[in-house]
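User: Here's a chain of 480 residues. Predict its fold as tokens.
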Amino acid sequence: MKVLSISSEAFPLVKTGGLGDVAGALPLALAARGVQMKTLLPGYPAVMKTVTGLTKKVEFDNLLGERATLLEARYKGLDLLVLDAPSLFDRPGGPYVDANGRDYDDNWRRFAVFSLAGARIAAGALPDWKPVLVHAHDWQTAMTPVYMRYAQEPEVPSILTIHNIAFQGQFASAIFPALGLPPHAMSVEGIEYYGDVGFLKGGMQTATAITTVSPSYAEEIHHPQFGMGLEGLINARATSVHGIVNGIDADVWNPETDNHLARNYSAKTLAARVTNRQAVAARFGLDDDDSLLFCVISRLTWQKGMDILSETIDSIVGMGGRIAILGAGDVALETAFLSAANRHKGRVGVVVGYNEPLSHLMQAGCDSIIIPSRFEPCGLTQLYALRYGCVPLVARTGGLNDTIVDANHAAIISGSATGVQFTLTDTNSMLYALRRTFKLHADRKLWVRIQKQGMKTDVSWDASAGEYASLYSSLLSKGK
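Assistant: Prediction complete.
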């Protein structure tokens, strides 16, 4: 089964969040199920410099007026197609923002061109490989099914995966003439969205099927609280919406072999985690003692509940705990956490930024990870935490709800508990969850049982890849 995956990120080449992890891991998991997936990526500097052996496959003379070259290579198990369009992608900064953190003004054009290239590949632009299905990810590639719908060629089935419906790619209607679409595409049945152009909306309207990254999130986005203005379309297409929880790369995230750790360990050698715990304390300037050590590895934003967490820092310290925070985001929240670190030297430590190796060490050395998201399509950090015996304390929403078994009385008795869940409403709700976590941790035998149960959980891509492969097959059978 030949499938084209089109994504603006793919680990280990480009990653700003969970999208990169999914796009990098899913093709490898699907290969065992008879799916030959090629992944189309933009030719960012990091991609062009890192991937060797790129060979020219196709010259595009006119992608919305842009010239581009389609290159091919294999990199760490991934079959890559790279769209080399230097005027659009050979830039400093990140995939979507400049060196000063501002969105590129022409992001609409960059990803419209990229999506159009995906549609051309779907139509047979490659001389020796034609996909039977296209899998697009998020707003950056959501225009691929749009271009497929309005092209002259017969349309192959397409899937659009929504990793976070809050990011929609909404642009002024003035860009429409430059998108190369027929006039009737600027309609409610096409890409028109509250008078603007909606990339994600257009993809949701035209894709054969829509997936989200957890069953709970697939249900939540039917409602205004989570649908972000697109709940009407989700409800209209309810029979085409599927929730498939993310997995993780169990080889990359493996405490027995992870070279980012101070010491490797397994569920049978949990005592060895103390070496990583000491390394975390040293890195964050924390006291080296036996008190409950929390960590946070997150974007520091309102969505992630970081404002509520900032209001409970003093209480965590007052209860006798320590906390190590790694992340970046809203300046006000960064400042609040740094201020807490100054107030509570040795008890609160903060590193502002993104650091992949350090995040591995924190999962391996901390007792519990706090994830108080207001909404969370799937979340991957709680899956990493399970794998590493770092007990998740999570809000009861989206993928967090689907992947963590709350340590209530029944779950403790049955031995199925893997973490602590709570409904995030205000500071008091989080304080209650924190008190529960301290009480569980005080019973060291129970805490170890919870750790080991989490480490037994299958958080790999195996089951989820099977669901994607089944969905692919069902869409192809319907098209026959």
